[in-house]
Amino acid sequence: MHSLKNKIVFITGASSGIGASCAVQFARQGAKLLLAARRMERLDAFADGLRKKFSVDIHTIHLDVRKRSEVESTMDTLPSGWKKISVLVNNAGLASGMATIQDGDVDDWEKMIDTNVKGLLYVSRAVIPGMIQRGEGHVINIGSIAGYEFYPKGNVYCATKAAVNALTNTMRLDLNGTPIRVSTIDPGLVETEFSIVRFHGDKERANKTYEGITPLTPDDIADAVLYCATRSPHVNIQQVVLTPTAQASTTIVHRVQTSQK
Ligand code: NDP
Ligand code: 8X3
Fold first, then answer.
1. CATH number, domain at 15?
2. What pLDDT score does 46 carry?
3. What is the pLDDT of residue 260?
């Protein structure tokens, strides 16, 4: 197992869900955590808990990945002990709305494209050159099965995750010949704040997404991320696809009525 002790792991979207679970997993390994999100109060409280529990070194940063100049200046001005990033987990992302193409809200579309595609690119562009220079690095993108199994009303979210899939594969091509590894973790239904965000705060509608199934947990995804990151440096796990057992594809989900469960 490749040790991550004192290696800097940078996780975007670490204030909740999959990103937060990844932070816990990497903290357990004794990595140094560079954690980013927009909700700083929440991120700082979470980081304090991790410091107490795992005695790890953590630096939190406010980062709205949609803002190119904020990403560039924040990454350029990282404190000296936090520049040498070994693992980048490009996790920040969201679905916003779920409507047909003819009814879709263009603001929702822009939010998804700006976060899931452009945000991932801005962060990657800021981090990868240093990895090449240092001869060490691993980029782990959080994609989705929605990136290749499209579903009705998923249009723009699916398109952004298809873009993540294309970017993961093309990053690997461009970085071939360097020691930098590139992986993607592509989950199906994971119960996080994802659906609450997608349905603009409507918790009742969000809960229906996971009704009658045992969904994946953020820890299930973080396990896979950690597995990729702890292989020997000559092993690149290119892709991990995980779904709940009840989910055969984005559209085929076996749901059991609560009373029958
Ligand atoms: P959550 O809503 O629980 O977490 C999303 C995280 O992304 C939060 O920490 C949020 O932090 C951060 N984020 C959102 N927008 C921005 C932004 N503009 N700049 C910086 N950070 C941002 O959802 P998940 O944990 O489920 O989602 C994580 C990733 O997993 C996403 O890329 C999602 O597409 C992917 N995914 C999720 C699945 C699921 O079923 N849940 C399945 C497949 C993939 P803050 O608001 O504080 O900025
Ligand atoms: C999130 C999973 O199926 O809701 O990427 O699009 S899905």
1. 3.40.50.720
2. 98
3. 55
Give this prediction's pTM: 0.98
> 89 phi and psi, to 5 degrees?
-105, 105
Contacts of 78 (CB under 8 A, 6+ apart): 34, 59, 61
Ligand 2 proximal residues by C-beta, below 6 Å: 144, 146, 154, 188-189, 250
- Looking at residue 176, the DSSP 8-state letter turns out to be B
Whether 66 is in the pocket of ligand 1, judged by its Cβ within 6 Å, is yes
Distance 192 CA to ligand 1 centre (A): 9
Total structural domains within the chain: 1
- Measured from the Cα of 16, ligand 1's closest atom is 9
In a domain, 108, yes or no: yes
Let me know if 151 is exposed, middle or buried by CB neighbors in 10 A (0-12, 13-18, 19+): middle
Residue 64 lies in a domain: yes
pLDDT in tens, 183-204: 999 999 999 999 999 999 999 9
Q: Provide the residue type at 102 as one letter.
A: Q
- Tell me if 96 is assigned to some domain: yes
State the residue range of the domain holding 12: 8-242
In a domain, 254, yes or no: no
